[in-house]
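Example with several molecule types.
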Amino acid sequence: MGDFENWASATFRQAHIVVDDDDLAFVQLIYVSSMTRLSVLDRINLDDFPSRAIDLRRAPDLP
Amino acid sequence: MSHPQDLSLCEQATAIARGDLNARELLSATLSRIGERDATINSTPVVFENESRAMLDDAPRGALRGVPITVKDMFALPWRAARNGSERDLINATASGPFRRLRDAGAVVIGIANQHEMGMGTTGAISAYGPMGNPWNPATCAGGSSGGSASAVSARLVAGSLASDSAGSTRLPASYCGVVGLKLTYGSVPYDGYFGASTTFSAPGVIARDGADARLLASALLNRPLAPASGASLRVGVVRTPFWDDVDPEIEAAGESALRDAGWKVVELRIEHLELVGAAVLGRLIAEATAPSADVMATLSRPTRAMLLAGMLAPARYVPRADRVRAAVRAALAGAFGDVDVIAWPCTPTAAPPLSNPWVSLPSGQSPADGPNMRQTAIANLSGIPGISVPIGLHSSLLPMGLQLLAPWGQESMLLDAAEHLENTTQRTYVNLIPPLAR
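Resulting structure tokens for the full complex:
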């Protein structure tokens, strides 16, 4: 097993979820794709996106 | 009258109230039609002969008295748990908030609307009940996750269905099936007994054949009148890239044609941070998608299980960053609605792909349908605003196309006004199209 499979298997084992090799291959595919898409969030300038409280049950305030 | 399910939802309700249509006969005819027509589309895998008759016996004299509808498998009913398209009961049987609203309006729940397993797909190709076919071509996708709702309404099995929408799940199948799909504003309906309550993205939605039917159903769900007004003088904002550019050229042309037919003032719009919406949606959704217990996980399809498992591995650092983007996008959208009444772009970027291989071909390349579909719709879920998909004709593949309209917070009525105006200016050509299965 590679590093990803070992790490993922251990995480799932902690959650009492049994996976097989086909599961792990599928998970790796989705995980890698997701991390690529999420990495854009690593590159945002936090000064441009200040932390604001979001009240999801109300319309947002105008900027 | 050939069959009472060929009447619209409004016509059924009016005819029952006037005594022109016997609600018991309507119920029996609806059960028969589901039995006759549903085999190839699998929209309504569970019907409630006894429970629906009991509901009818007790139905109050509300706006929907005696009208049969289906309910997505994401909502618990007093006699049935919510399974969310899986094999297992996930929320115990109870009168969920949306069910209570519809029951109190007199509606009769006649069956479960099939859905994509766990709501985690936009095609309807995977479900514990089996895949959902599109009445326009049962070998193509009905869409998801509320595929059974859209398919049943399109096939004239029922005139209305309770759906839900976490990233486009009401609007996308409506677009694929040529019906109207309205996502309500986040939090506008009681969420108890509703599987979508576990995320900050999900809202109930309605699927119907036209704007007037969607208005009637949505009004019952929201428990407030949605008075019609003219949709003739709306200012419509369009954002070209990627929402109009990276779609099937026939759909782009049909959308442009619809805007011209409506005679609306069209304004080119720029909304800040749109390029980050997809990542913010993903960062939040995978954090919120609770992995079910191990015994439930073992029963799920491999793709759904893999998505849930991958979410368990996602770094937590993306959640606060996604929330910062979410706050900025909500504010940017609120600002954009200062200049326009509604925002428009195509709903699904292609017509329904084959169930056997639900990939789509776009100017930007080929990909599984889910990514491009959610790119078109999930901004409404990130921001909580309402959205609607309305039919705008048939693609050369003889499959429907849909235009999406987004409105400010709580402005469902404006979307319905726009939908009905478009129906009128196109002589109801698109909402009156009937799929081969229903002819």
